[in-house]
Specification:
Chain lengths: ~250, ~220
Amino acid sequence: MAEPIVRATALHKHFGALHVLKGVDLQVAERELVFIIGPSGSGKSTLLRCLNRLETPESGSVVVDGIDLLDRRTDLNHARQRIGMVFQSFNLYPHMTALGNVTLALRKMAGKSRAAADAAGMAALERVGLADRAGHRPGQLSGGQQQRVAIARAIALEPRVMLFDEPTSALDPELVGSVLAVMRALRESGMTMVVVSHEMGFARAAADRVVFMDDGMIVEQGRPAEIFETPSQARTQAFISQIQRH
Amino acid sequence: MIETFFNIGILAQAWPIILAGLGNTLLLSLLVVPLGLGGGMLLALLSTLRNPWIRWPLIAWVDFFRAFPPLVLLIFLYAGLPFAGLELGGFTCVGIAFFLNTGAYYGEVLRAGIESVAQGQVEAARSTGLSRGQALVWVVLPQAVRAVMPDLLSNTLEVVKLTSLASVVALPELLFQARQAQSLTYNPTPIVAAAVVYFLLLWPVVRLLSRLENRAIAGRG
């Protein structure tokens, strides 16, 4: 395996007395799509949020695209432009149009002119199939459209890695498909992706690797078929059969 | 009655004096509203810092100046400080008193606005590489100000009314001028005229406020 683009090593994280990450290692190769599954409270979202340092682990190391995120000398704002993130609740800026949401960081952080930012922003909206909604505010868009704008906001910065934190959990079932379609297209374009989600169908079809976490640790990982059909650990088995019942 | 309170002859005589007062009230408002807003914004931004060495003195400061009657504050600055050898002009005293008093009120309103913005907004902004300051300026503050616009407006209404306090330090604003005219003409008509002028000045703001509040209620439903 070539040098992984994401290398998290021996991560430990507490929230108060709660030990949420207990020495987690995760490596992601370039162009790989890694799915992280696990019961709520297993630490999967915290692990994801350590990968762009929205959470700071107490010990361990996180290196993304060669940048050590825990090094005090690292320009975190610069590093984060290479790491796109999509949130469960979209977190679009409600006071801006879709295009405004997508171009804010391009203009303020990447230093593009308004014209250049608008062009890049429109291209990103085009990729998620929402160029015709560029002038709409988030409140005028459906949940699925909002999440696709959020994806456009992240990809407009041309990140090396995309992190998805339960991107479809807040959506009505009929809107999930449109977001997964965009994620699939992104995957096909060669984007490296780390996805926390329970969309098993998508994981089976698109993931290279599924990681099962429980109680702050990675219990087991492997190809989707292995994890879903022949998991080796009892905890994985219990979890898989539980969510497949739904 | 009409001779006493609505005397047209006296009104004509007093009108230029009252008009000059209105001009000064407007000027004073243009000074103290931005001053209070600026002070309030400073307090609100400081309150976003979690540092206890800033937090607790800040809370004490805001509590103190919200509890302290602005008239007492103004008289203390104007008539009290000279005993310590510090003689500030009436105008400066009004500026300082309003900065301290209305700044504390604006600060509380703006702080509530900032706290009403979901944490996810900041996280989204930071995840795209925006700095803490950029996230504040471009993402949090626009939403915060919008959220508390009715309260800001309502507070501003109070501030404009409070500028009448400046009359006690002989600043020739609307109320002071009306009182002057009253003693010159020995008739209360100028006071009535001043009241009408205040009303005409502020009533549109009150209407606007009602509309904003109704819209906020409708938006919530």
